[in-house]
Structures are given as structure tokens and as C-alpha cells.
């Protein structure tokens, strides 16, 4: 349940002209969310045809212009470009004089904090790092999903309230992340969310190979329960043959995977070892069973090497 409440209209900050540099999946959704809070999207930049279509879908009638023109027209600028492109973009905008004093410059990179915006800060901009901990589709459903979404927030202390207010206006919940902790924070989210997609996709492929006609329907309740249990109980939610120390079952898994989907064996072994380590550390896996299990996993890895 959300612990933050939308501010009353009388308590909201002045309405801002909002621009988006980078019409990927994130920027238009955030701008559309800010529009619902009363702010005014005025410009968006996008190079590819997909970006332009996305901008038209999410921000109809908002003109598509160059990044410099976005900054010229906007009080609040969302820099929603890939992580690796962000430092160069900021330096370029600052060097060309596109940044205005007093302009709110917001990036949505998980990897970086506010310091990546230092070139713009020296030009007088107000730097904010607001990273939504959410996956985006590039469709209007993203705006709905922002309700209750946590944002990793990093900003100079004097801008903390402004950063948190913007997140709350988008329906999110601000979570303060120290500058030096941003890479670890982002790694944690990538480990959970990005790798989850890979695991689920591989699981569905294997079920199809096993003859299951609707693997999504089979996995939905199982994975939903597993996720809920993990969020509630952490390692205590571990179950399955690895946590129980069923070495014979794990060996059979490896044999079948090697036969039908050899590309999945390395991932299975890595996750099984990590699961065994956690189950052992939390007293779920009995030490006398762990030895045989770890031997099976080591033999499986040797088979990969061979």
C-alpha cells in the first residue's frame, strides 16, 4: 500500500513546461504522467521512426524537435536516453549553451546519480536523478503502472524535496539512493528484473519442448506464488530439489537439459549453485546432502567444459 499521498492542488509546485530528450519507452510515459498532474509537455526529441510513433501515441500534438530546441522550450527536461549515452549528451548540451540557469534537468538512468549532470550544474541547471524501478512497454499502460512504483532518487540535498515532489506527482514513491550506491542499486534491479525475463522465457521454451501447450498458463500461478513468497519471506521461501538436496533429481535435470537445450545448462548450474549456497547458509539444505549435490553440479560444469 502506498505511503505517499498525491499533494493537494494548492500544495503543488508551479506547473512546468516539460520536455523530453529521447523518446524511448520511458520518457513519453513520464511526461504523460506529469501531464496528468497538471504539467505541460511542450517538446520531445526522437530520431528513429519508432521513437516518433511512440511520441505521437503517448504525447499527441507535442512537437518533435531537436534536443537543443527541447531545452529552449522547457522548464523541466527529462533526459531519457541509454545509460552509456547520457554523459556525452549532458556534456554536449552544456558545451553548446543549451542549458539555462534554473532549469530542472532530470535523468532516468539507474546507473548514474546526480554527478553525471555536473556539466549542466556548472551551467546553472538543477540536477535530479529519478529512476523508476519499472519495466516499460512504450504504451499507455506504462502510465498506469507508475502508480505505486518506487523511484531511486538522487539529488543535491537542497533539491531533495523538489525531487520527491515530482516522483509523488507521477504517482510513485521516492526512495533515496546515495550517489556512491547507484551502481549497486542498479545492479540489484537488473539481477532481479532482467534475469527474471530470461529465466521465464527459457522455462516456457522447455515446457513447450516437453509438450505443454500453454506454458504461460502453467507458469503464471506458480511464478506468481514464488515471487510473492520470496518478497514476503526471502530465503525461507526456497524450495525445490536443490534446496532439498535431491542430487539425483538435479543430475537428471542436467542430463535432459544437455540433451534438449544445451544452451540452458550453464545458467541452470549457476543458479543451482547460488541456490545451494543460500539454502545451506540458511539451514534449509542439510550439510550431509549438500556434498552429493555440489558434486553433481561440479560434474555438470566439467561436462560443459568438455
Short description:
By secondary structure, the protein is α/β, with parallel strands linked by helices.
Q: How would you sum up this structure, described in words?
A:
This protein has 13 helices and seven strands. The chain has helices at about 25-35, 50-60, 65-75, 85-95, 120, 140-145, 160-170, 180-210, 215-235, 240-245, 245-260, 265-280, 285-305, and strands spanning about 15-20, 40-45, 75-80, 105, 125-130, 150-155, 175. It is elongated, with a radius of gyration of 24 Å. Helix 11 (about 245-260) runs parallel beside helix 13 (about 285-305) and helix 12 (about 265-280) packs antiparallel against helix 13. Helix 5 (about 120) links the parallel strand 4 (about 105) and strand 5.
Name a few traits of the molecule.
alpha/beta, seven-stranded mixed sheet, 7 strands, elongated, disordered N terminus
SSE topology:
Elements: E1 17-21, H1 27-36, E2 40-45, H2 49-58, H3 67-73, E3 76-79, H4 86-95, E4 104-107, H5 118-122, E5 126-132, H6 141-145, E6 150-154, H7 160-169, E7 173-176, H8 182-209, H9 215-233, H10 241-244, H11 247-260, H12 265-281, H13 287-305
Parallel strand pairs: 1-2, 1-3, 3-4, 4-5, 6-7
Antiparallel strand pairs: 5-6
Helix pairs in contact: 11-13, 12-13
Amino acid at each position: 500500500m502506498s505511503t505517499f499521498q498525491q499533494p493537494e492542488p494548492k500544495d503543488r509546485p508551479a506547473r512546468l513546461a516539460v520536455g523530453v530528450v529521447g523518446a524511448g519507452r520511458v520518457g513519453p510515459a513520464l511526461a504523460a504522467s506529469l501531464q496528468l498532474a497538471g504539467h505541460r509537455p511542450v517538446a520531445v526529441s526522437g530520431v528513429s521512426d519508432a521513437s516518433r510513433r511512440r511520441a505521437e501515441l503517448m504525447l499527441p500534438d507535442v512537437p518533435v524537435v531537436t534536443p537543443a530546441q527541447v531545452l529552449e522550450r522547457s522548464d523541466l527536461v527529462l533526459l531519457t536516453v541509454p545509460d552509456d549515452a547520457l554523459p556525452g549528451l549532458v556534456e554536449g548540451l552544456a558545451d553548446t549553451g543549451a542549458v539555462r540557469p534554473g532549469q530542472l534537468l532530470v535523468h532516468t538512468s539507474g546507473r548514474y546519480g546526480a554527478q553525471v549532470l555536473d556539466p549542466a550544474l556548472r551551467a546553472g541547471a538543477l540536477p535530479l536523478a529519478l529512476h523508476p524501478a519499472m519495466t516499460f512497454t512504450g504504451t499507455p499502460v506504462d502510465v498506469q503502472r507508475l502508480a505505486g512504483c518506487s523511484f531511486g532518487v538522487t539529488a543535491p540535498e537542497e533539491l531533495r524535496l523538489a525531487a520527491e515532489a515530482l516522483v509523488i506527482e507521477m504517482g510513485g514513491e521516492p526512495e533515496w539512493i546515495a550517489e556512491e550506491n547507484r551502481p549497486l542499486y542498479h545492479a540489484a534491479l537488473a539481477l532481479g528484473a532482467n534475469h527474471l525475463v530470461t529465466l521465464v522465457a527459457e522455462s516456457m521454451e522447455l515446457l513447450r519442448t516437453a509438450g505443454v501447450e500453454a506454458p504461460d498458463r502453467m507458469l503464471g500461478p506458480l511464478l506468481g506464488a514464488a515471487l510473492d513468497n520470496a518478497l514476503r519471506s526471502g530465503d525461507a521461501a526456497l524450495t525445490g530439489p536443490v534446496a532439498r538436496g535431491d542430487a539425483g533429481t538435479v543430475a537428471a535435470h542436467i542430463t535432459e537439459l544437455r540433451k534438449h537445450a544445451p544452451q540452458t545448462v550453464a545458467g541452470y548450474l549457476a543458479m543451482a549453485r547460488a541456490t545451494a549456497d543460500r539454502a545451506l547458509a540458511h539451514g534449509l539444505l542439510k550439510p550431509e546432502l549438500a556434498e552429493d549435490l555440489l558434486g553433481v553440479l561440479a560434474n555438470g560444469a566439467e561436462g560443459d567444459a568438455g
